## 1
Amino acid sequence: MMQVYRGWLFGAVLALTGVAHGAGDPEKGKLIVTAGDGSGAPCVACHGLDGAGNDLAGFPRLAGMDAGYLVKQVRDYRSGARKSAVMSPNVDDLNDDQIADVAAYYAALDTAPTSLPSGAPGTLALGEALATKGDWDHYIVPCETCHGPGNVGVGSDFPKLAGQHPTYIKQQLKAWKTGTRNNDPNHLMLAIAGRLTETQIEAVAAWLARQDPKGGK
Amino acid sequence: MRPFSTVLWVAVILGSGMLHAAEVPVEHPPFKKGQYVHHAPTVDDLMKDQEIKPQLKKVILKGRDIFMNTQQYRGKYVFSRLSCKNCHLGEGRLNWSGPIWPAATTLPDYRGKNGHVNSLEERIAGCFSFSLNGKPPEYGSDMMLALSAYHQWLALKAPVYETHIGGRGYSSLGKDIPKDIHYVQGEKVYQAQCAICHGATGQGKSVEGKVVFPPLWGDDSYNWGGWYGAGFTRRHRSSRTTCRLASLVP
């Protein structure tokens, strides 16, 4: 009996250290953020050391995002599954360990969101309705159905949207609509983005950007 | 006539340009001849409706709230981790995804399943017992009243006792189980199409205790009366289509 129990415990410990290993080292990650991949520009130039990004320039906020999600995106840029002329050259020479390290660095950051001017009430109300109730008559499922309560993300597959820059959110939704982003698993996000009107995109981006990245009200 | 047709052509070209934009089609079975299609009202319609008294609006909205978040009664009326809306998608309004209002226009009626004339409350109670692994609120209680009011309001302007309803229930994959159906194949489909949301073993996913993707089996799901209990054919047809129809699974 004891024997069996110990066996299990040992297995569990192994599994845990295995995970910890794959999770990346934020200290090493920080070095890559400032030095870059050796050929492109360093991450810090666009995403900042604090991972805040920049709204007007369309540089996404990376602070506090799920590490597994960040890893997937950087790998997708490297493989060409996700394309961006501005972004891809900066990461195409990173190896898997380095990618895990940068992801761990940005994921661990607790940066305050950039404050935005208050939006138009009608636009924000439409955005909130889309994010929390959806538009089922047009088969638009509420964003929080997949992006989780408060749209703070669910695991590594469904990224945090709360507090992301509105310009970036809009760009991504339009990229799906026009077919330039198509690295989403099973086209789950394409199904939604493809059905959103320009007005809805504007509204939902404005509302999501003003939400607390940690899910508070 | 000239300018009109030019405008029309421009519209057609723009239109086809838009069709080129990436989209995931919604695949619904066609409605059958002679069926009517009901467009259930939305909460916005309710707020604007002058005919409905404010006191009734409050009760309808309470019913909607119970339907959307039945988990607020976990441990009392619900022992699983499901809410009504998890199976009856889009607030119970969506055709082909188990719209609930037909119960309000077709009941009371005789159901062979239990051999007597059933009321709307009894139908609702059935879903509590069998689909939520729960215990129904008392007949005539405030909760039952609110839920019935919500069902009935969704049926607004639908013909009573008319059973040729387009989009009722879930779209059927047919009554015959295909011969080549196989556990291993099913597991492959599940891992490829469903696991990302419902988890590798169907346990569902939660964030800080709140269910995001509901569990598909076991005590946290339903005991026997959901579609799993209603026999394999039903399970085969409904579970896949629920998510398909909401276009959760394109």
Note: Confidence is low (pLDDT under 50) at residues 1-20, 223-250 of chain B.
## 2
Amino acid sequence: MAVSKRIVLHFPKRLVNRPIVSRLIKDYDLEFNILKALVTPEEEGLLVLELSGEQTEYDKGIRYLTETGVRIQSLSQDVLRNEERCTHCGACITICPSDAFELDPLTRQVSFYNEKCVACVLCIKACPPRAMEVHF
Amino acid sequence: MAKTIEEINEKIKQGKAVVVTAEEIIGIAREKGVKQAAEEVDVVTTGTFGPMCSSGAYFNTGHTRPRIKLGGGKTLLNDVPAYTGLAAADLFIGATALPDDDPRNKVHPGEFNYGGGHVIEELVDGKDIRLEATAYGTDCYPRKKLETLINIKDLNDAVLFNIRNAYQNYNVAANTSDKTIYTYMGVLRANLGNINYATAGQLSPLLNDPHYKTIGIGTRIFLGGGTGFVAWQGTQHNPDVPRTEKGAPKRGAGTLCVIGDLKQMSPRWLVGTSMLGYGCTLTVGVGVPIPILSEEILGYTTVTDAEIFGAVIDYSSDYPNMKADILGEVSYGQLKSGKVKLKGKEIPTASLSSYPRAVEIAQTLKEWIINGKFLLTQPVAPLPGVESGITFKPLKERPIEE
Ligand code: SF4
Ligand code: SF4
């Protein structure tokens, strides 16, 4: 059975420059489509992928990634803002690596664009009133 | 033109007072000139909404049957220890108190999900709070254990008492080290990766009355969504710092100690807050009305973000080591643009206090005054100014000798 999933890969600093993803193609015959790639303030590499292939190979590929030390997160994790709790301080703006927060220069209200979010979860604990929430 | 507070109150009662916010007055004075603006405007309202750690609340729980002496024992509110060094049924809870079993920074950065500030928020929200107490028992207070739910509506007294709020100006925080640091000024990324600041700037109470000409002990204020009073100068009140020509301090300077009935406040304006790797606190809304008694006083309220400067401090070494060095001075106008240039680098900026909510406070206070619901008070004593000779001293450590 063929599967196709959207996942976020977190590469610790020591793995950032290793050709890990290319082995997924060679050894497990998986196809991928990079949706987003960036480096967080902690210099962790972040790759948002659409990964597809045969279920058995897919599972092996995921196991390989986990064993090398890559942390995998499903993009079905949705980061949402609790509008009641958000005070529009702006502390999240410089935390988010993918510019999902935007400050209105006039009203100084902070908008959150969920579609830009790569679910890195950095804002969850950095938001002082804890207005950002992960939903599964 | 000099007006008095009584005259302004008379106008408020008649529904004739002209009230504007500290943001609105900037444009009005620009258009009409300070002289005419001072004649027309009676009150300028200010506001600030940010994390303020020296906040807390005290309660009287009422006595149990048989009686228990909470004083000198141990009392937890939703697992957070309250201060019991008071009489039998009086308690104080501080915003930064943590449950005994909170892991704190054992795994750094600690999360600090729940503390005293959150207890205050839930209490104000009308939620039941778990009170668990142990006491040593006396002839007149025999009981040794108490476990009960309490609710703000049943408490005899519930009073917000913040010994330091509304800093007149504040440090601007950066990090020159090569790793991310977690501070009370938020998450600061390595190598000057970001800059955080915390003030409402041109809307902030004490920046609109830089020499404390109207704000004093006894001034009625907006506090936590209700009304309160300035009780004293806040701790660390330090008026004698470098100032701009118009009087705005360029460093943290004056502070306010404020008090008010918690029962009429709201959780929208008292928000339990968690600073990653630092601790818990309470985000507090404070708004102060400034009576326009003279042209000079109006002049101060026209201050803009571009005219207020803060010192950028390195929180990776200078701040923790109590060094007076600064990385530079920047205006809040620059900080609010989203980027500042420092050490040849363009650095993104973020705020920890909420400007939109500060605007809402100033607007709310304005409406209260316009609708005659809020009268101004004459301070019973001024806050100490530069002439007071107050200085802010470090702790001089001395060895303890037996
Ligand atoms: S840090 Fe949290 S409260 Fe502040 S603007 Fe961002 S989401 Fe809202
Ligand atoms: S989880 Fe938060 S910090 Fe991470 S990308 Fe989404 S919005 Fe930005």
Note: Helices of chain B lie at 5-13, 24-32, 34-40, 116-124, 295-301, 332-336, 355-370.
## 3
Amino acid sequence: MSSRPGSTRRGFAVIGQGARAQRRLFSVAVVGSLLYGALTVADAWVLGWATDEVITPAFEVDAVDVGDLAIVSLLFVGVAVGRALGVIARRLVGGIVYFRLMAEHRRAVTRQYLRLPMRWHQAHPTGQLLSNANADVEAAWAVMMPLPMAVGVLAMLVVAVVAMLTADIVLTVVGLVIFPLLFAINVGYQRILSPRVTLAQQLRAEVSAVAHESFDGAMVVKALGREVEETHRFQEQAVQLRDANVAAGRVRSVFDPVLEALPTIGVLLVIVVGVQRVLSGAAQPGDVVQVAFLFTVIAFPVRAIGWVLGELPRSVVGWDRVRAVLDADGSTTYGSGVVAGSGPVALEVRDLGYGYADGRPVLRDVQLSVDAGRTVALVGRTGSGKSTLTSLLVRLVDPDSGTVLLSGNDARQLTHASLADTIALVPQQTFLFDDTVRGNVALGAEVSDEDIWAALRTAQADQFVARLPLGLESQLGERGTTLSGGQRQRLALARALVRRPRLLVLDDATSAVDPEVEAAVLAGLREQSTSGGPTTLVVAYRKATIALADEVVFLDDGRIADRGTHVELAARSGPYRDIVDAYDQTRERADREAAARGTGTGTVGAGDKTDAPVPA
Amino acid sequence: MSGVAPSAAPRGTAVASGEDAGAWQTLRRGVQLSPSLRAGIGGTLALAVVSTVGGAVVPVVIQQTIDRGLTGGGRIDQSVVVRLVLASLLVVAVTTVAAYAMKVRLFVASENGLADLRVQAFRHVHDLPVLTQSSERRGALVSRVTSDIDQVSLFLQFGGIFFAVSIGQVIVATVIMAVYSWQLTAVVWVCFLPLVLALRSVTGRMTSAYGRVRRSVGEMLSVIAEPVVGASVVKAHAIEARTQDRVDAAIDANYRRQVEAQRLVAMTFASAGLAGGLASAGVVVVGVWLGVAGQLSIGTVIAFAFLVSLLVGPVQMATQVLTEAQNAVASWRRVIALLDTPADVADPGAAGTRLPDRPLDIAFAGVGFAYPGGPDVLRDVDITIAPGRRVAVVGETGSGKTTFAKLLTRLMDPGRGQVCVGGVDLRAVPFDSLRRRVVMVPQEGFLFDSTLADNLRYGQPAADDATLLAAISGLGVSEWFAGLPDGLATRVGQRGESLSAGERQLVALVRAALADPDLLVLDEATSAVDPQTETMIARALDGLLRGRTSVTVAHRMGTAEAADEVLVFADGALVERGPHGRLVAAGGVYARLHASWVAQSRLGQEAPA
Ligand SMILES: Nc1ncnc2c1ncn2[C@@H]1O[C@H](COP(=O)(O)OP(=O)(O)O)[C@@H](O)[C@H]1O
Ligand SMILES: Nc1ncnc2c1ncn2[C@@H]1O[C@H](COP(=O)(O)OP(=O)(O)O)[C@@H](O)[C@H]1O
Ligand SMILES: [Mg+2]
Ligand SMILES: [Mg+2]
């Protein structure tokens, strides 16, 4: 971002790293570029030589020497062919180096995403992680594109000075004034430009973030009629971006024409001085032509050095962000144990405590035990910590204190595969992949069609899947947007069931499902549990779900407030009753009120003509 | 009923990709949409023409110097050379200043025009129904207001201007060459001709190569999002390996596409240099020949070598710039297609009819709806609801309840038929009236990444903290609020993810209550909330909504029992309606749904210990 000298040094360190990582290909690109550089100078030399040795003599003696002309032609064409090969090596192989570095670092960054724990994910905004894997990787390595060319140009400048020395010392001095000047202006240009470009880039990311959020929340924006305000919010960012782009544009507008004019001025200088030198007999006309031509062909490539220097700060910023991901540690470390045997496992939670980043304890001193094959309902008010507890069980996050035991095995001692095979969580929020129904349910596991359909049936998803045009092979689109909420939830349930877990954790997994379907799902689950199905922990509010449970655990403000059968809890715990009997209480109150008004719930207010059931 | 005729608009709308518009058509329409692009364009072009002259100075001076006696030992008049050089310096100075002025004007005009376009497009997206239908990927819409427009601006400011200046340079060089010698001009052009002829096909190949690159980038980004957005699922099911395979495959595909495109670029670049070499050789050979025959001066021959180098650059870059142009046109086209997608859910503005100032009634007349490319999900819905009624909507998952709610609040327009509120066709109601009086709370409580207060204020920006607190206690959720770490200043995280799912719904409800609507539509707005809180909210809403109309989509039949009237949807049709008691007695769909709910909610009392 800044042009601190440190940033240039660190930029070169990044370059060095990239070059080492792709040593072989990078060398090929540099050799190609050196060839290109040397032959560009050779081109000027051929013209100078031809002027003195072929063209001038031919005009003087008024005769054509075919042999000489053939040599000139061969030289021109030979140089051009060699240069073309150099260009291919430089641009193609150089490009491959850049693309490979990007691909490799994208792979490395996404591997980190897969490795790092949920706690880390929760602490980093989604947008930032996506841009780390994309824009930042690109920013870190974009410098590799012009790099071989810049190296070639450096070589070219050296060769050019040598070539000029063989022509004439005084003309060389002109070159030694113009080239460093060109170089310095390029460096100054990039130094002034790059902070402006970086700013514009940041603003571009902000514009994109506002658009993302605003479109994501479009329902709310629309439902509350806030389109105008949202547009203002976006406009503010868009205008800032525009101003930043114009500011960078102004810098370009000054420097680009100057950089174009400078070589022309150099050539004019060479001519004035060159005429003097030729008159004094110190130089040949061909020398003047050669040096002048050199200026013409070198002027543009020299900019590559500026490009590299200009990319350096961006490269450092991008690399720092990528590095932050690559260096992040605190991965969930898994053990080497497995839960022996098959069939349901027992769950035990001891002294569990947990708080999110803000430090407020969400779970305190949680004790919980579920015998193998039993079903326990977890009941608690909104925000009491139920979802947090379920995520601790599958080690999405690890507790600040306490342990989770599966049939006596500390969950932290288990391998990841064993843990995942043992427990399946159906989270409160459904996430579907941009994949087929099969891909979303099987998640890459080798599962037979019958098993998938069986799981779909238990989850009451078989009917709507069968109605999809391609059945199991139907694509669901980004995050399953073509399905209704209840349909998505049932696929998530099937996804858990198909894995035949030994402990099934359901976090309010039927909230978007209608009562009939829910009843059918519950019946299916009950059937499973009576026939050697999994141990089940189910976050529930509805009595039918609770009725599935052998035992109820009542979570209040992050603590286990009570436990026992539903009947016991209902008898002794007022807060528990308030939750599970809320509907009955409401119904009773309504009935009482209706009775007081002298009507039943079944009668309607006055004057509605259309209250007869419409035939289906 | 208002007089607006039921529309024959297509059912649901998808944003066109715009692939079919021609380049000129796109350009014309683009400039029309961003008039600032045209500002001062004449002056800018004139300056561009002037700025191309500078490059031609060198060959002319070389030719003059040589032919005035630099070679062949003839005495050359130094003062002539100095004058020539001074005049040239003047030309260079003028063209440099012209180039500066031209670029500044171009940057300012294009950035102004494109910023306007960006904002217009953003606004238009919010007017389209696609967002609420989510039939198109939202990421794709974001890219239309971001990277697509960036692409256009990059082209206008770099590739485009390079192209214009290059054409000027080629023309100037060709004119000078033709003046010097038509024969040598012909030689040069014969060498470049194959490239110029191949331009079209190479550009075509390059455009499709870059099209493939772009598509592979899109696919890669969507797959890379999986381990980020779906992190918990990936981890919970230990499918890291599978996810990594998918990601690696997408990254590899992108890599291969990039290399393919780069191969074309390198080849065309190299062949332009080759043509330059051939041309130089040709110029010297033919030049010497003609010179010996007395038709040319030696200076002309050497000047030609310089002129050839003026052609190499533009020809080298031509395919690349043309490809960029194609990409820019394609991007522009996508933005234009977005803007030209009729905003069928458009604000009629001041010309519309405001909702009457009384409790609102609802009337659906022959309403049908299908999502783009899908079957009918609502059919022949005819219904009137008297003002002030509390209506519950029930039905199986996928029966069309949410669709009904969206049509009722005009988040979408019906494909057939008409939706009237307060006697006015919704299509005729200005948004400021509609959105103030009619508010919907969707199931997913979406929150913006800001504080709780900002989110609550979203529908009522003027509300002070006291009003917010009053609304919180008015809805009976003060107890929950008291437990928040920073009260109103609590940060809710991206999409509200630092709150629990139920808490997000609470915030969405308070937000809606603050907006103080006359018709409130709740679409399973308390599905993630515990029953106690839910019934408390229901009671509080009852009080708040007294005398107003409400429509509540609910799975929990408690809502239906308490409602004045129940609408029952099945498979896209309204199959039953009436008060709870009558529907139960009728023994239809509702009776069945209710019975299973009662069975569930009563089971507890009968359940064996
Ligand atoms: N990612 C998070 N960051 C900070 N706080 C959180 C986060 N997720 C949940 N919380 C807080 O933790 C508490 C418990 O949340 P949760 O376990 O989701 O509750 P429940 O599932 O019982 O409704 C809530 O107060 C919530 O605000
Ligand atoms: N964005 C969409 N694109 C295509 N089909 C959709 C979309 N949203 C919903 N549907 C389909 O429309 C039907 C009705 O959906 P919806 O109104 O959400 O039902 P409900 O709210 O009653 O569960 C379902 O079959 C669903 O699959
Ligand atoms: Mg929860
Ligand atoms: Mg719905």
Note: Chain B touches chain A through 221 residues (CB under 8 Å).
